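Exercise 7. Given the encoded structure of a 207-residue chain, write a plausible sequence.
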């Protein structure tokens, strides 16, 4: 895969976008510099998620960035999205890889055992985290810190995106630790001016 698409990876959050139009927010984010979008919605029904994925995919296709579906390989296939991202408690990675029909497959990594699964079962990239404490995912594992990120990124030998507590202020340190890019949720979607929030990230990433 082209790891450049991981440079600034936006994951959605239904609680942060509930009062706003998701497609409009994502369009503004991509226009300002987001390079990949993950549709992440833990509460939507299968039908709701499918409809959201179809609408969002029309936006991401038009603007030329991949759409990744969190957890649901069936929704990825039904909506024609470019990839799926799963973790240790989802459908086993080897089965996802077999079903993905050549599309991108990402895998969440929090420990060395996850790295072994990612390498063995065919992940295209890994999401490593949480790097720093985060409020977006209350049940997240303890923060890895930069040292933990560095160790897991080196062991994975795959393109990796860092997630968890990422802000423009710590982007440079995260890239130095071995990440190809960063994933942001509240640090972008938690702002009224989405474009300005993205531009702050891009300034830090491109410096």
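Solution.
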């Amino acid at each position: 895969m082209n790891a450049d698409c991981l440079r600034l990876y936006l994951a959605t959050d239904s609680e942060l976008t509930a009062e706003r139009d998701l497609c409009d927010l994502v369009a503004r984010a991509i226009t300002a510099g987001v390079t990949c979008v993950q549709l992440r919605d833990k509460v939507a029904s299968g039908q709701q998620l499918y409809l959201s994925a179809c609408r969002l995919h029309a936006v991401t296709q038009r603007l030329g960035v991949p759409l990744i579906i969190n957890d649901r390989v069936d929704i990825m296939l039904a909506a024609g999205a470019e990839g799926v991202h799963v973790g240790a408690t989802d459908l086993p990675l080897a089965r996802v890889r077999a079903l993905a029909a050549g599309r991108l497959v990402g895998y969440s990594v929090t420990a060395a055992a996850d790295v072994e699964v990612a390498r063995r079962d065919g992940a295209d990239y890994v999401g490593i985290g949480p790097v720093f404490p985060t409020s977006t995912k209350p049940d997240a594992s303890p923060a890895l810190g930069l040292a933990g990120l560095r160790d897991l990124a080196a062991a994975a030998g795959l393109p990796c995106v860092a997630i968890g507590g990422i802000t423009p202020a710590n982007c440079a340190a995260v890239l130095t630790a071995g990440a190809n890019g960063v994933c942001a949720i509240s640090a972008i979607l938690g702002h009224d001016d989405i474009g300005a929030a993205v531009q702050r990230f891009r300034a830090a990433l491109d410096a």
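Remark. The first strand starts at residue 8 and ends at 11. Students should compare their own answers with the one above.
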